[in-house]
Amino acid sequence: MGEDSRCWGNQSVRLSGKKILMTAAGQGMGRASALACAAEGAQVIATDRDAALLDGLSDAGIETAQLDVTDPQAIKEIARKVGPLDGLFNCAGIVHHGTILDLSDDAWQGSLDVNVTSALRLTRACLPGMLERAEETGTASILNMASMASSIKGFVNRAAYGATKAAVIGLTKAVAADFVKQGLRCNALCPGTVDTPSLRGRIKAAPDPVQAEKDFVARQPMGRLATVDDITPMVIYLLADESRFVTGQALLVDGGVTI
Fold this sequence. Notes:
By secondary structure, the chain is α/β, with parallel strands linked by helices. It has helices at 3-8, 28-39, 72-82, 105-137, 159-179, 197-205, 209-218, 228-239; strands at residues 19-22, 43-48, 63-66, 87-90, 140-145, 184-191, 250-253.
């Protein structure tokens, strides 16, 4: 059996030997991805602005660190500390609810800072080391969290979120194009509506939480919300060598919304 059989035949080594840094890993998709990648053999460094949310991850062999992705100096420091990476997952994001008429300058800037600028800064800080790893191993992978609500599809009351996630896709494609010949891959993950603490918070804050949940479910043709376990297989795939011929793509896991 050749090298490819090690990727597909023995699932336990899909990320063996890979060092991967993740943001927003304290809960929801970030935490699930950290645990899933660690289970596949990766050396995971999980970060979050709220260090308390990272509790328990060390039990799975995951290194943790507090990181505010809106702090440029903190980003430089974490990149220096972790050294060359095989994988980077820019997972941090916030959802602003409202039309453009509800969008203050401060809220717009906050969405840009967390959803786009943080990914730009962390990618820029980690890229030299990742290019070193790509030269050594043949590939390194950056994964950016985008959304089906982006340049792919518009959604009601998602002016800031859709615009910034569209920017994430644009940034992803630019990085992919600039470094494809050096073995650096960059892709964007575009989930549908995932049942996470963030979503539950938005449902709870709605005037009619029961109806809000029904509305979220109704826009999924499969008739249910996604779970984090529906999304993590794509995270693993895009960070693993089996996706070594995939770059510059916005990959949907949306339960059929964009059919």
